[in-house]
Write a structure and sequence with these properties.
The complex is a heterodimer.
Chain A (H helix, E strand, L loop, with lengths): L1 E12 L2 E13 L4 E5 L6 H8 L7 E6 L2 E2 L7 H7 E4 L11 H11 L5 H14 L15 H13 L5 E5 L7 H16 L3 E5 L3 H7 L2 E6 L2 E6 L1 H6 L4 H10 L1
Parallel strand pairs in A: 3-8, 3-9, 6-7, 7-8
Antiparallel strand pairs in A: 1-2, 1-4, 4-5, 9-10
Helix pairs in contact in A: 3-4, 3-5, 4-5, 5-6
Chain B lengths: L1 H30 L2 H24 L14 E9 L4 E9 L2 E7 L5 E7 L10 E2 L4 E10 L1 H31 L4 H15 L3 H15 L4 H27 L2 H9 L4 H31 L11 H12 L2 H30 L4
Antiparallel strand pairs in B: 1-6, 2-3, 2-5, 3-4
Helix pairs in contact in B: 3-4, 3-6, 3-9, 4-6, 5-6, 6-8, 7-8, 8-10, 9-10
Classes of the chains: A alpha/beta, B alpha+beta.
């Protein structure tokens, strides 16, 4: 479903050239849940953002459902409609109600009628457990509720893949659980997911595969059991010692 | 047990006292503004009195009674008999009277005049061209006509300035080098030169070359001027919306245009409303400069009235008050709109 081949992302900053993603190759099959972990600055978020074209990568290929993002003729908007993204800072539209947050892209991109879009939105809000807040503005919601709305907003587009960029990092500890529960539910339903997270418990419980990144490179790949109990690489061992 | 209860009671008492004290300080805080209000009043009265005293010293004759006629006046038009003849009937119609006159050759005419200006009596013989009386009608004076010119001039140039500013503001953050630099040059040239000079260039140079009327030149200069400032406000407003908003919209598959229209601009508009309204209020005031190219706006009307009345002090004070009235009404309106838009905060 997702095929990344030797992806390189170079930032030209004031402090010189930074290879944020340095030759990452991986494949994600349909229905697979892949968790990317690694220390901050390891390029895991940047790699995730390359997958839906929010960052343009410098070299390599990312092929989603047979469409190559490196190809100049690719309509990136069409690809993005199939790839849902959930951000660390939720990024809900503050001037629109919860319901409008869910219907906007459905109407604009999927060309659904307002009625159909609203039905879909209410169904998803019920699914993530906040249907009673449909007509409130996002500022009235707690962080956990906002992130669940953000997940529902991405799901409203019927994406084939969901990307999560540290979805619980900006939340108060007591709200992390409610968001992870929604993500677990999604994984159970067979959604293809790539998750950048620091939640090791989630990785261990839900992931089919764990990718450990450091300094822009994939250092170790494996099943959660293998990775958390018996990592081969020194850097992975050190990282686990620090976070567990 | 008893002891613990008493501790509890004293704690409650203390808390209650603390609250009472807080309430007292709050009351005191409001009470204590009165000396400052008094001081404000004293200062204002002092300024007014010293101005008054200074004016007394130069022996200026205040003629406020000359001013009202320049807001609105009653004009009297003489009604004259078109032939030699005789008044044959005078019929009262409320405030007016209808005077019927007839000539020897069976010519007949009915003239309606104001009752208190009637100059003839029934049966009176009149020569052709004699005045029967006057009709009275209300007309807007030069101050109101000038105000109207100022208002439409400001409104039209605000409209074009807003459109120009929106386009230029977006061009300022364009990815295209040429578009970005064109916008930057326009903004810098306008912001770096005085409006007065721009108006002169618009009228004496561009107006002559392209054969434009003075109104077109005036509106054009004001719109170009406002556009440059609006552009900077729009640019800052758009850039103040977090990048996450754009990313969220784009990640849902929305195009750059849809993102700008549905997500960024509505939020930016709310933020730029206060500086934008300030800019338009400035434009109303700046529009007084077009009087230099002989557009009869409020300021020029004021100058014209002074040439015929010599009531310099009164007229300029009135003109200032009229500008102040318009600008404060506008800022009240904006204040109301801001409150309405703050619903989602």
């Amino acid at each position: 479903m997702i095929k990344a081949q030797n992806v390189v992302k170079i930032f030209n900053g004031y402090s010189g050239v930074v290879r944020a993603v340095d030759g990452v190759s991986t494949e994600v099959a349909k229905g697979e849940v892949v968790v990317i972990i690694g220390p901050s600055g390891s390029g895991k978020s940047t790699f995730l953002r390359c997958i839906n074209g929010l960052e343009a990568f410098t070299e390599g290929h990312i092929i989603i459902d047979g469409v190559d993002l490196a190809d100049k003729k690719t309509n990136i908007n069409k690809v993005r409609a199939e790839v849902g993204m959930v951000f660390q800072q939720f990024n809900l539209f503050p001037h629109k109600t919860v319901l409008e947050n869910l219907t906007l892209a459905q109407c604009r991109v999927r060309k659904r009628s307002k009625k159909v879009a609203e039905e879909k939105a209410r169904m998803l809000l019920r699914k993530v457990g906040i249907h009673e807040k449909a007509d409130d503005f996002p500022s009235r919601l707690s962080g956990g509720q906002q992130q669940r709305v953000a997940i529902a907003r991405a799901l409203a587009m019927d994406p084939k893949i969901m990307l999560f960029d540290e979805p619980t990092s900006a939340l108060d500890p007591e709200m992390v659980g409610e968001v992870l529960d929604v993500m677990k539910q999604l994984a159970k339903e067979g959604m293809t997911m790539m998750v950048v997270t620091h939640e090791m418990g989630f990785a261990r419980e839900v992931a089919d595969r764990v990718i450990f990144m450091d300094e822009g490179k994939v250092v170790e790949v494996g099943t959660p059991e293998h990775f958390f109990t018996n990592p081969k690489e020194e850097r992975a061992k050190l990282f686990l010692k620090q976070v567990l | 047990m008893v002891e613990r209860n008493s501790v509890k009671t004293s704690l409650i008492n203390r808390t209650a006292k603390k609250f009472r004290r807080q309430k007292d300080t709050l009351l005191n805080a409001t009470d204590k503004t009165w000396p400052w209000k008094l001081l404000l009043a004293v200062i204002l009265i002092g300024v007014a009195a010293s101005t008054w005293g200074a004016v007394q010293r130069i022996d200026y004759q205040w003629r406020w009674n000359r001013v009202p006629q320049y807001f609105a006046y009653v004009s009297e038009d003489a009604q004259k008999i078109p032939f030699d003849g005789k008044v044959i009937a005078i019929v009262s119609q409320g405030k007016d009277v209808a005077v019927t006159v007839a000539s020897g050759k069976a010519e007949k005419a009915v003239l309606t005049v104001a009752a208190d200006t009637l100059k003839v009596t029934d049966g009176e013989e009149l020569l052709s061209g004699a005045t029967v009386g006057f009709t009275k009608s209300w007309h807007l004076g030069p101050l109101m006509l000038g105000l109207w010119t100022t208002l439409w001039l400001s409104a039209v140039s605000s409209f074009f300035g807003l459109i120009l500013g929106l386009i230029t503001g977006l061009a300022r953050i364009s990815k295209n080098f040429t578009i970005r630099w064109l916008a930057l040059l326009y903004v810098e040239c306008i912001r770096g030169t005085p409006l007065l000079v721009q108006i002169f260039i618009a009228y004496f140079f561009l107006g002559t070359v392209f054969n434009l009327s003075r109104n077109v030149c005036g509106v054009g200069a004001l719109a170009l001027f406002a556009g440059a400032y609006v552009a900077e406000i729009v640019r800052a407003g758009i850039q103040s919306i977090s990048k996450g908003q754009t990313e969220a919209a784009r990640s849902l598959g929305m195009t750059a245009l849809q993102t700008m229209r549905d997500v960024v601009m509505p939020q930016a508009f709310k933020r730029i409303l206060p500086p934008l309204s300030g800019q338009f209020i400035s434009l109303i005031k700046d529009s007084s400069l077009v009087s230099v190219i002989a557009i009869t706006d409020l300021a020029k009307s004021g100058r014209e009235i002074i040439t015929s009345t010599f009531a310099t002090f009164e007229v300029w004070l009135i003109v200032a008050a009229m500008y102040l009235l318009v600008t404060s009404l506008l800022s009240q309106l904006v204040f109301y709109m801001e409150r309405r838009l703050a619903v989602s905060d």
